[in-house]
Amino acid sequence: MVPRRVALTHALVDSYGLLHGHGMKRLRTRPATEEELASILNKDYLELLRDLTPHNYSGKRREGAVKRNIVGLTHHDQEAEDDGQQNSDDNPVIAGLWDYCQRYAGGSLAAARALGSRDSDIAINWSGGMHHACRDGASGFCYANDIVLAVRELLRVFPRVLYVDIDVHHGDAVEDQFAEDSRVMAVSFHQHGRRANGGDGEFFPGTGAAGDVGKGEGEYRTPNVPLKYGMDDAGYREMFRPIVGEVMRVFQPEALVMQCGADSLAGDRLGEFNLSVRGHASCVAYLRSFNKPLLLLGGGGYTINHVASCWCYETAVAIGTEIPDEIPHHGYEHY
Question: What are the phi and psi torsion angles at 38 (to 5°)?
């Protein structure tokens, strides 16, 4: 999840000439404010994120961080282990953590506002898509849930918003936030159940069974599509198109948000699907075909040259052009 994934993506997009012409423009964004982030984070967690650094990770602050699943930049944090944290190594204390959260969340907010103002038909923030972050803690490399922030911004303008998640992991925290909201439908396609070859138990985060469909006013608003490891292009397409097509027909959303986590690609270091870049991008092309305001976000992806190739190609799909397989000079050839 190193931010260089996004730098590499941007370099590829630029090297193919996609930033110039094609109806593409670059938004000038600002970091999300503390007030804006307070709408998705509880007070104690927000203050922790704002003030936490590798240098002050000690005492009470360390205790609070561990409770919220954030640990020090060590190979192993004994206090986190003693406290029973299952996913703690995923969320390290890094220098500039608060600034990082503000900037990627600000990008998603700017993209949502561009759609809401009708200035853009499609808006992209590949640094966003942090679908595991909760109101009171970090999870799965995600500290602040920019998706929830963006969807809420879209709801200011659009009565119904559809969220589609094609990351290999279940979009659990987005589902939780909108589980009782009839204005939002959250559809997640993800690996579920045991890992390949026995592995080490349930595939993270272990949620997103087919029977989990929302509750209260939001019942049947969170359809989940759990899939076994090894899913390929043909199988994914067979599930994706009819399900999303029916969701579009029944729910009739006015705006679409898509989390394009690239860890569902073949060869990912964590995911166990076998999608090609073209197969992954066909999902973006299908949503684009409905001609609704569309927000594209990043997400997971742990073989970073694959991630950059995928998101570069999906940028081309978004603007309706084709790019050659031959990669031009982009400055990251060593990847």
Answer: -65, -20
**How open is the CA angle 244-304-57, to the nearest 5 degrees?**
105
Q: Which domain holds residue 123?
A: 4-24+119-318
Tell whether residue 169 is among the known ligand binding residues. Answer: yes
Active site residue 22: no
Note whether 314 and 118 are within 8 A (CB). no
Q: Cβ distance 238 to 282 under 8 Å?
A: no
Q: What is the pLDDT along the chain (335 residues), one digit of tens a residue?
A: 888 999 999 999 999 999 988 889 999 899 999 999 999 999 999 999 999 999 999 999 999 999 999 998 764 565 555 555 544 588 999 999 999 999 999 999 999 999 999 999 999 999 999 999 999 999 999 999 999 999 999 999 999 999 999 999 999 999 999 999 999 999 999 999 988 876 667 899 999 999 999 888 888 999 999 999 999 999 999 999 999 999 999 999 999 999 999 999 999 999 999 999 999 999 999 999 999 999 999 999 999 999 999 999 999 999 999 999 999 999 999 88
CATH number for 174:
3.40.800.20
Task: Check the annotation: does 140 bind a ligand.
Answer: yes
172 is in an annotated binding site: no
**99 domain residue, yes or no:** no
Is 84 annotated as ligand-binding? no
Is the four-CA dihedral 165, 170, 171, 176 of positive or negative sign? positive
Which residue of the set 20, 22, 75, 132 is catalytic? Answer: 132
Decide if 35 is inside a domain.
no
E strands, the chain, in order: 122-125, 161-165, 184-191, 224-227, 255-259, 294-297
Task: Please give the helix or strand (H or E) that residue 55 lies within, else none.
Answer: none
CA gyration radius, the chain: 19
